[in-house]
Design goal:
Layout (H helix, E strand, L loop, with lengths): L11 E6 L13 E5 L12 E8 L2 E10 L3 E3 L2 E2 L1 E8 L5 E7 L10 E3 L7
Antiparallel strand pairs: 1-2, 2-3, 3-4, 5-6, 7-8, 8-9
């Protein structure tokens, strides 16, 4: 049995355990995952960064959306998350593939900085 159940076809691409101090104290040790998403479903799933709750090194089984907004509508998306990293100062850096570059001969990974929620 998985520690955290995620909807099928969400396509987790990369995870990181948060060790910084830019976010609220309860985020320390939590897992963040980039959900690349499924392109071939009637209703899209994934296309977000999630935060899985971990307390004292043990996953609670719960997660919440952390970064969303990649899906414009069921026919179009802005981009697809592929990774997440932590900067030395504790900020989280999600990486995503821009939809406009997906079918191009040039591919690029675009980074966006996530500032702490206060």
């Amino acid at each position: 049995m998985p520690d955290i159940l995620i909807q099928p076809h969400s396509a987790s691409m990369q995870m990181m355990f948060y060790t910084g101090n830019q976010f609220p104290a309860e985020y320390e040790g939590n897992v963040f995952a980039a959900e690349h998403g499924s392109w071939n479903r009637a209703k899209r799933t994934g296309y977000k960064i999630i935060r899985g709750m971990v307390k004292d090194g043990v996953p609670s089984g719960e997660y919440e959306d952390f970064v969303t907004g990649f899906v414009i509508d069921n026919a179009r998306v802005f981009g697809r998350p592929v990774g997440i990293a932590q900067a030395k100062d504790g900020r989280a850096w999600p990486q995503y593939l821009s939809n406009s570059l997906r079918n191009s001969s040039i591919s690029a990974c675009i980074s966006a900085m996530v500032l702490p929620r206060v």
